[in-house]
Amino acid sequence: MRAFAAILLVAGCDFSTPASTGVPGDGKIADASMGGEPGAPPSGDAMPDAAACPGNFVPVASAGSSRYAVFPKDTQPGAMLTCSNLGTHLLRLDDQAEATALEAYIDQQTGGGDTRLYRVVGARDLVLRNQFHDLDFSFLTYLPFGTGEPTNNAGEECLVLKKEGAIGVIGADQCLTQHEFACECD
Fold first, then answer.
1. How many Å apart are CA 59 and CA 36, to the nearest integer?
2. What is the pLDDT of residue 54?
3. So what's the architecture of 2-39+50-185 in CATH?
């Protein structure tokens, strides 16, 4: 079943990316204003080996031990390809603190450019409706859905990070809708 689902995932995705898709150093990569000096971990957090992450990936205060880089709008397949080419992955939310910190951080870095303020997350419900899994097909244990989510609307098979009140939550959206995104380096 997994092999069949993987074939569907690859066959159903358009892996082309617009020429404007960011790469490290394109001006869309975040500075370290919320996470201290570049390369310096927030107090008490163990950080990934800086040599293992691309140079412009930075820690984000209250978001755990990963490093992140923010990019302009793309679809989930395009964003996934960008992150993969950098040896990283799309956002994986582990807890409420990370979801809220990353939503605020991406908003700060992009100037709120996405009018709906949705950010691509590396998860979808490709095999069974509303059974969301990571893009490696592992099932997710933390799904902070917002009010009324998931919507069950046709075509809304990918997850996005958004703000509800003062916290970061997830919702469902179409996979080929372009939103800002962040790659994560563990």
1. 8
2. 92
3. Roll (3.10)
